[in-house]
Design brief:
The protein is mainly alpha-helical. It contains 17 helices and no strands.
Length: 303
């Protein structure tokens, strides 16, 4: 089997290894922080490059449903998360809000396939989520934490626009230049490449927080439990959001909401938030990589 296909199949092992190496050898990752944004942009470029927009357009035959889901996923669920958690711990509430408000993971359609959900519906949610993210995420933080947190909303919007729209435009330029045949021949390797790139982000992020993790084991354990809880609740909320739809649609909604782009959340946290909040986004790698197995098992028993 091709090494990149093997990496894609065992993505969880690659990402957990990146976590471990970052903890054991943090000195090698700390100097790579300036590379985080370019790496994330490269990940999005590969995703946009292989996206079949015709499949997405078919889902927009019912635009009211897509708008309803985007409002629920990007605004209502993140808002509820912050309101509930802010009475428990402010830093934890901000970290979980960032995860809940972040667009779905670029791998959400692939994970949707694993649980036998509708991949095209997942794509129809993922792509517009990234288009709205530069507006919605800064507004969410300004509205909920403006009085307590000095957030540069304009700066965050600029960073998001840079990270999302440059890869999107670049991918379309490449397609227009007649590279479609090359893309079709090589796109099977994009998944493995992206796993390695996400692993690099995980390695750098965990390296930068390794000292904090070692010095605060109890805090880390508590935060990890809350992050796991958030992931499970988001999957349940996603599944219930389309309760009247067929099973494949509900599974797509569950996975698409339940797996946020925590690499994007981590990059944003490193640029705009404190280490206490950064570590929450880094810890999200654990449920991200370990819950898909249980999710697949549960999906077989749902109607």
């Amino acid at each position: 089997m091709n090494i990149l296909k093997l990496i894609e199949k065992y993505f969880w092992a690659v990402l957990l290894s990146a976590l471990a190496i970052g903890m054991l050898l943090p000195e090698y990752g700390k100097d790579l922080e300036p590379m985080l944004t370019p790496i994330l942009m490269l990940i999005l470029f590969f995703v946009f490059l292989k996206t079949d927009y015709l499949l997405i357009l078919k889902q927009f035959k019912n635009p009211t449903f897509i708008i309803y889901i985007l409002t629920l996923f990007l605004i209502i669920i993140p808002s509820a998360t912050y309101l509930i958690m802010s009475s428990i711990d402010e830093n934890l509430a901000i970290g979980l809000l960032l995860l809940a408000a972040t667009p779905p993971a670029v791998a959400a359609p692939v994970l949707t396939d694993i649980v036998k959900g509708d991949r095209s519906l997942s794509l129809a949610i993922v792509i517009p989520s990234y288009l709205f993210a530069p507006i919605v995420i800064p507004l969410m933080f300004s509205f909920w934490t403006g009085a307590r947190l000095d957030i540069d909303g304009v700066g965050m919007s600029k960073v998001l626009l840079l990270m999302i729209f440059i890869p999107l435009v670049a991918s379309q330029i490449v397609k227009r230049l007649g590279a479609s045949r090359i893309i079709k021949k090589t796109e099977e390797y994009f998944g493995g490449i992206n796993i390695l790139l996400v692993g690099a982000i995980v390695f750098v992020a965990i390296s930068m927080q390794a000292d904090f993790i070692k010095e605060n084991p109890e805090k880390i354990t508590t935060n990890l439990a809350w992050v796991y809880g958030l992931f499970v609740i988001m999957q349940i909320a996603g599944y219930l959001s389309g309760f009247w739809r067929k099973k494949e649609d509900k599974l797509a909604l569950a996975i698409t909401k339940g797996y946020p782009n925590n690499a994007l959340a981590t990059v944003l946290a490193l640029q705009f938030f404190t280490p206490e909040i950064v570590i929450i986004t880094v810890l999200s790698q654990f449920p991200w990589n370990t819950l898909i197995g249980p999710s697949k098992w549960v999906s077989k028993h749902l109607k």
